[in-house]
Design goal:
By secondary structure, the protein is mostly helical. It has four helices and no strands. The N and C termini lie far apart (62 Å).
C-alpha cells in the first residue's frame, strides 16, 4: 500500500468515527508526529508543555478568559 492510499484510507476511516474520546486519542498520536514549527522546542520545553496540558485536561490548572488575561497584563504594566 502506498503512502497516499494509506492516508486516503485513514481519512475515510476517521470520517466514520463519532466517538470524541477516540478521535481525541487518535489526534494526540498523530499530533506527536507533526513537526512544522519555525521555533523548535527542546525536550525539556516539550515536557513542560505536556505536563501543563495534562493539568489543564484534568481540570487541575487555573484557566483565564481572554479579557482576564488582558486586564491582568494591563494591571501589571501599570504597576511598573
Amino acid at each position: 500500500m502506498t503512502t497516499a492510499s494509506l492516508k486516503k484510507n485513514i481519512f475515510k476511516a476517521i470520517d466514520q468515527i463519532n466517538d470524541v474520546d477516540y478521535l481525541r486519542s487518535i489526534y494526540h498520536i498523530i499530533a506527536g508526529r507533526i513537526i512544522e514549527s519555525d521555533y523548535p522546542l527542546t525536550k525539556e520545553q516539550l515536557k513542560i508543555l505536556k505536563e501543563r496540558e495534562a493539568k489543564y485536561l484534568s481540570g487541575k490548572s487555573k484557566t483565564f478568559k481572554g479579557e482576564e488575561v488582558k486586564d491582568n497584563a494591563r494591571r501589571k504594566a501599570s504597576v511598573k
